[in-house]
Specification:
Pfam families: zf-TAZ. The chain is an all-alpha fold. It contains eleven helices and no strands. Helix 3 packs antiparallel against helix 4, helix 7 crosses helix 11 and helix 9 crosses helix 10. The longest helix is centred in the middle third of the chain and has 46 residues.
Length: 241
């Protein structure tokens, strides 16, 4: 039946034989009969025969292998006979490209938010426990610190503690540490027992903050929490944002 699947598809549509039509579609889809050379012709035939499952498969196949398909005789013939259909496929190709870029943007954005959250975890780890392994020679029974941001944060904290310029004089490192501390305070569930420096001070400072800045911080906190799905976990809480 495989070699006659296309002819039988046309006949089953013309004479309204649904079960034969479904079987022809199944043969074409599951037997690997659709290739870059014939997909354009099969796509047009599927549209003519009202075979949505087959036409959808062909449409996706063309988007996935467009570079190879666009140089086939079938594509050139369709451009001449059905220019509107060609424009629709090209539009679909462009829309798919936009969707891919948007997906990648969201993935990259989520990765940044996850890194920020992990940095907040590392900050709590440093201030609460004191990292015993970061930037030190490990003993036999010790394992490396699990927080990738630990070493960088420790260096930033040391700089912040001894810097003479500070934020007011424009030190970019101190400004970054200031932002880290403020972000922590907005994620911290209980500033009364928190060991991170200035946690309570930042919570009180928020009352005097401009509404525009407050909105920006709230959006950032919600995105970080959502990216990690951490509501209710130790140290941090969405309720404190």
């Amino acid at each position: 039946m495989q070699e006659h699947a296309l002819n039988l598809l046309v006949l089953s549509h013309a004479y309204v034989v649904p079960h034969l039509k479904r079987e022809c579609e199944r043969q074409l889809l599951e037997r690997g009969l659709i290739t870059t050379d014939n997909v354009v012709d099969i796509f047009q035939l599927a549209l003519s025969c009202d075979a949505p499952r087959l036409s959808l498969f062909c449409h996706r196949f063309m988007l996935k292998h467009f570079k190879a398909i666009s140089s086939t005789q079938g594509w050139e013939a369709m451009k001449k006979s059905h220019p509107v259909l060609e424009k629709q496929i090209l539009k679909s190709l462009n829309d798919e490209d936009i969707r891919k870029k948007e997906r990648m943007r969201k993935i990259n954005e989520r990765e940044v938010y996850m890194q920020l959250y992990e940095a907040m975890e590392a900050l709590v780890h440093i201030c609460k426990d004191g990292c015993q392994t970061c930037d030190k020679v490990l003993k036999k029974d010790q394992t490396p610190c699990k927080y990738a941001a630990c070493k960088g944060l420790e260096l930033l904290i040391r700089h912040f503690a001894g810097c003479k310029m500070r934020v007011s004089s424009g030190c970019i490192h101190c400004k970054r540490m200031w932002q880290v501390l403020e972000l922590h305070s907005r994620l911290c569930a209980d500033s009364d027992v928190c060991r991170v420096p200035l946690c309570r001070n930042f919570k009180q400072r928020r009352r005097r903050q401009k509404k525009k800045d407050e909105i920006k911080w709230r959006i950032l906190v919600r995105k970080i929490v959502r990216s990690k799905s951490i509501s209710g976990m130790p140290f941090f809480s969405l309720e404190c944002s």
